[in-house]
Structures are given as structure tokens and as C-alpha cells.
Specification:
Length: about 240
């Protein structure tokens, strides 16, 4: 993996993304009322919003930091898939684990406060989390490095590379990085990058299309019980709240 990333000149971007990727845990014991209000008969693409067992886990990534000027309290904004965190009720009952990388790592807990945006058709959700005040400076520094490296990659036009990298927490476990090939399709980003339950909401790096914006892992398509490909959410607009 390291050699592949070095060859594609994205090792620093991957390393910086790792520092902002989180394990997402929705701690409700039953699906939120919003899920239950979805129509009984919905298109196949919406079935994943209803067929959930609570509590459940997913993945996400910090994409903004917001500091309240009046109270000096800071919050981070996490992007994930909407079928992982469906609405405000679920956001308020979500715990995120930063640096959940293995035994001996110092995990930082982020506590969900409210949803800040979502799109059911594109399967993405953004929500705010409280952060320990002693950890916010470290997160800000990591975020600054990530933004700088992302900006560098946008300017280099790497559009001949057809790899897709996924950073996630499979089955709610420790962070894992997988890499695969992009499947060229007109409707969205598809790939054969390995994934499984718990990967939903994981940060997607579509090498060569980095300038297109933020995407997370949305799910996989199957045929006769065999996985055909994975696919990303729609483009997630990240509105800067200011730091």
C-alpha cells in the first residue's frame, strides 16, 4: 500500500486523511422516527435507509472546524453517509472515535450535537461534534496539513490515475485503508476497492478526481449474491464555518 501511494504521489494526502478519519457509532437502540416514516415501498437504493439494526457503526471524516466566538468552544463537522447517520435525532446520539487505529493508540471521543446538512438522494450527511478543548489544537493542525496537501493535489491534475482509496472502519473495528481500481461509469464514482459493513461513510480518495470535491463510501451493488462494485455518495458541499 505504501509503495503504491508513493508511486501515485499521494502518500502525504493519505497520511493526513488518516488523522481526520473517524469511527462513527449511532447509539440509539431503535431506528429514529425519520427512518420509520419512509414509505413502505421505496426504490431499491433507499432500502438501506430502512433496513438497519440499531445501534450500528460506520465511518466518517472531519471536514471542517467551527469555533463559537462568544463562548470560544470548538466543534468539528463530520461527513458520513446518510444511511449511517440519518437525521438530527441520530446525530445527537452519535459518538465518533478519532485515532481509533489499534491497541495502544490514544482515541479521542467526539460527541454528536446536531445535523448540519444532508441529502437522501446522494446519501450524505454532515453533523457537528463537541471536542475536548485540550485536543482541538492538535485537530486544527492536522486539518491544516490536510487542506494544504489537498490543495497541492488539486493543482497537479492527476487525471490519468484510476485508483480509488477508501479509509474506513470495517465492522466497527480499527481503521483500515484499502485500494482498488475505478470502474469508469458516467453516473458517479464506482470502484472495485474492497469494502464491507462499517465502511459506509468512509472517506473516498478518487485519485485523479480529487478536485471534484468530497465523497464518502455509500455502498455496494450485487448481482446473484456477488459484489459487482462499490460506489460513492454524491458530491458533499463543505461550507466553511470559519476557524
Amino acid at each position: 500500500m505504501k509503495k503504491q501511494c508513493q508511486k501515485m504521489n499521494i502518500l502525504e494526502l493519505v497520511n493526513n486523511s488518516i488523522q481526520l478519519s473517524v469511527r462513527v457509532e449511532v447509539r440509539l437502540t431503535e431506528p429514529s422516527q425519520g427512518r420509520n416514516q419512509l414509505q413502505e415501498s421505496v426504490p431499491e437504493m433507499y432500502s438501506k435507509f430502512k433496513n438497519v439494526v440499531m445501534p450500528h457503526t460506520g465511518s466518517g471524516i472531519i471536514k471542517d472546524i467551527y469555533t463559537n466566538e462568544s463562548s470560544s468552544e470548538s466543534q468539528v463537522e463530520v461527513c458520513t453517509a446518510m444511511h449511517v447517520v440519518f437525521n438530527d435525532e441520530e446525530a445527537k446520539n452519535t459518538k465518533c472515535s478519532l485515532y481509533f487505529d489499534g491497541e495502544g493508540y490514544r482515541t479521542v471521543i467526539l460527541t454528536g450535537t446536531n445535523e448540519s446538512g444532508s441529502n437522501i438522494n446522494s446519501d450524505w450527511c454532515k453533523f457537528l461534534c463537541k471536542v475536548d478543548s485540550q485536543k482541538i489544537d492538535e485537530i486544527k493542525e492536522n486539518f491544516k496539513k490536510f487542506e494544504t496537501e489537498l490543495g497541492n493535489k488539486k493543482r497537479k491534475k492527476m487525471n490519468r490515475k484510476r485508483k480509488v482509496i477508501l479509509i474506513s472502519h470495517p465492522h466497527g473495528g480499527y481503521k483500515y485503508i484499502s485500494i482498488g481500481d475505478q470502474i469508469i461509469e458516467k453516473d458517479g464514482i464506482r470502484y472495485d476497492t474492497p469494502s464491507c459493513k462499517g465502511c459506509s461513510g468512509g472517506y473516498i480518495i478518487p485519485v485523479g478526481y480529487i478536485d471534484k470535491g468530497t465523497y464518502v463510501h455509500s455502498g455496494s451493488s450485487y448481482e446473484n449474491g456477488k459484489r459487482k462494485y462499490g460506489y460513492a455518495s454524491g458530491l458533499i458541499p463543505v461550507v466553511k464555518h470559519g476557524q
